[in-house]
Predict the structure of Thioesterase superfamily protein.
Amino acid sequence: MTAAFFRTQSGPEGMELIPQAEAASGWGEEHMRGLAVSSALARAAELQIHTIGRTDLAPVRWTVDLFRPARLRPCTASATVVREGKRLCLIDSVLEQDGRPVARASALWLAPSQSPPGAVWSGGTRPEPPPLDAALVEAQHRLYFTEKTGWGDAAQSTNDARKRIWHEQIPVVEGEQATQFQLAAGIADVVNVAANLGSNGLEFINADVSLALGRLPVGPAMGFATTERIEEAGISVGTAVAFDRVGVFGTATLCALADAHRAVDVQSFQPIA
């Protein structure tokens, strides 16, 4: 099984999440990667929805704010119900380290029903996933695609072409089976790579990510395909569609700040000297 982001242990503030090697970021020593942060928050939100017994609802929106650097230190993730109604439930979750919050998330669950009969326009974006026999970059659990080079590793993806990322599931906690919601919420952080990887590596660090889900992904992997990118005065906004081997199932938006002096080589996950 793929190594997990965390293991759990009992601590003074309750059950703690202990970051493992898989949680390490390329932005600097002792930093935790956004995939791990988002996954931990998603797990807390999903545990809360099960605690209140609302398995009749489906997750449709996931928004994460990464407002402090999360470190490779013990942390706790908790969730609270903001509003519960017959057809919806809104849950906030927070990740804390050393007694203060470092990231927060908001999750919206809605009650599925039957679509109305009226005809409405629908987008036609259908990115192709990698071939079934394509081998993922093992240490990164992913493949990269650019319109110049096709599917491959990070080495051939450092260019100015539009990109896609295909990523396999990483367990959140050792010994637990990750859910499809945790897959989608965690992997959403790689929209930053899909949108902002360029000829000098990854020179933007994301402050958030928002994911809207028409359904949950099918299978053990999923991807994001960039649809638009805007950059001005060191601020980047990227949008992407989420897709699996069945088709497109959601959209994502991400805001990022320029951080060129700590640009990351996504092949090695190390800062570029």
